[in-house]
Design goal:
heterodimer; A: alpha+beta; Alpha-Beta Plaits; Sulfite Reductase Hemoprotein, domain 1; Sulfite Reductase Hemoprotein, domain 2; 6-stranded mixed β-sheet; 5-stranded antiparallel β-sheet; 19 helices; B: 147 residues; alpha/beta; two-stranded antiparallel sheet; 24% helix; Nit/Sulf_reduc_fer-like_dom_sf (chain A); Sulfite reductase (chain A); metal-binding (chain A); 4Fe-4S (chain A)
Amino acid sequence: MYRYDEFDHAFVNERVAEFRDQVERRLAGQLTEEEFRPLRLRNGLYLQLHAYMLRIAVPYGVLSPRQLRQLAMIGRKWDRGYGHFTTRQNLQFNWVKLVDIPDVLAALAEVEMHCIQTSGNCVRNVTADPYAAAAVDELEDPRAWCEILRQWSTLHPEFSWLPRKFKIAISGAAEDRAATAFHDIGLRIVRGPNGENGFRVLVGGGMGRTPYVGQEIKSFLPKEHLLSYIESILRVYNLHGRRDNIHKARIKILVNALGIDKFREDVEADWEATHKDAIDLPEDEKRRIMSYFAPPELPERPARDEALAARRESDPAFANWYKHNVLPHRVPGYASVVISLKEPGRTPGDASSDTMDFVADLTERFGHNEARVNYTQNLILPHVARADILELYEALAGAGCATGNNELLGDMICCPGLDYCNLANARSIPIAKEIAKRFEDPARQEEIGKLRLNMSGCINACGHHHSGNIGILGVDKKGTELYQITLGGNPKDSASVGTIIGPGFRAEAVPQAIDTIVDTYIDNRHEGESFLETWRRVGAAPFKEALYGAR
Amino acid sequence: MVLVELATGTIVADPDEVATVLEPTADEAALHDAAGGNAGPIAIAFPSFTDGRGFSLARLLRERHGFKGEIRAVGHLIPDHGQFLLRSGFDTAEITDPEAVQVWKLRSSASATIISRPCAIPCRCAGMRPPRPRLRSTRCLARPTTS
């Protein structure tokens, strides 16, 4: 994985010192709260409902055991012993005191971490396929490009005061596991006309109150021009994006106001006039960064498949976990293993300090010293020898971390909601817990099959409800929490925004409504059909009928 | 109102008269006219400290229009803008509170390194950086600022 050199260390330490100074200036009254706000935000510090929330960047979701242990320590020392993994592959602490923040930042810097640009109107942490360098269907590892974008975008001279936040995701695989179509810029590594890899560039995707699926601005961008092309997109946005209304300031609004063709024309015109050589990365620099992302040496190991098969035969819980949480690896004899943070009854995405320490141990014992964060709020050990899977399972089961629900209904994405967030209109965590309880039986989830259920506690859509096959949005209607349900969203290829199915439900009625939707799907589905396929074939009518017909 | 030289954080004793003031909405034609005037400094207005359009305008003046004279930031500015202004091609910033000069100086000199790309190209630091750009380069603070 990427290692800081003396330059990175000096840089991050400077940012810590700078933030100490900014906090002091704020306390001394030299900065107004209005002026301090964007400065603390670009260091990941939000003022939440009960306390400050600190958002820590986990670049492209990669964590070392040392980093996991430091995060565990920070959670114990300055928070309440747990953190929350987010849909941007980041980690949030919810109870840190302002006076402690500079010390937390210093502790993060010790393990090559920071909070820089995890918030604010700048280019945010770039996300990636969490199975990078392990997935069978991968064309090219996206992480080096994420790191290049991270370095390029950090304190960018021109693009640090944008109209609004800016999110980029990269996938280098056939299947989109990074929800690229729901980003300001989505990049897909694709094979070009001459057999070389390049980027398919999507622009203007996003969630929030005005969800859009990203549109293709360039079908094939030669890789060497990534930085200059993205600069041109950002320049057009910086100069012409709306600044008069925070709700209309994202690039998606500009792209859709101009139309993708006009927007493309403007970007291409700027790009034509650009001194590309002055911006695009020289080959040696690219190679230097790429060298950090060489895949780990994975020694040949006997797969012990007979032992795995025998255990699957004798132990249904193991069989279920194995089926859903153990994914194929491109190296024979290896697998990627999902550690679910969605055990029924716990807050989706939360991990205690003990869990972080535990996962750190597992990465050392079984995982080639690497863990990943998935945007669906689980952890992943990307490189596990199949020969170690039984032992790993025993360890996970002993710690209550062997829930076999990856990509099933129980694998909900969920924002912190009204329990923590001052933007939220409604609670989301308690609803998620109720739904998890309702669908607790693994046999029921197995019968349903893969299903993406996403929930947000407000229109800002941190819980990605728009892209859930089933989406739940908490709203406040005259002082009562009401939950709107959308169907048919899809974060992967042929991405789509879910459609509101009808009037909202009160909190206590949501689990039954989800049950009804799921039953309707099962009643209507053809053999082997996914929820999305059934929905796209039969449309809203049977679901409406089942949910509201009796009214 | 005093004028701060961004590279040094010192007050400019005898500022030149501004030849053109560019609003953030300035288009290519306005940039072209301003840069072609060959007259005195170009001022770029920041109506709000969160409005970053001026950074793009300065960079375009340097890169696309070959402007080599002084570019001055005016309007709602805070010391934390300093390094972004400098690296986008600005030379000076007009500030309302002379007391704040010390903070501007501190904020300008607080960073010995940058990770992002250096200032606009071509600009004053041309020739002082490695011949090909890299993601990291020592920021161009130590450089003489007169053209």
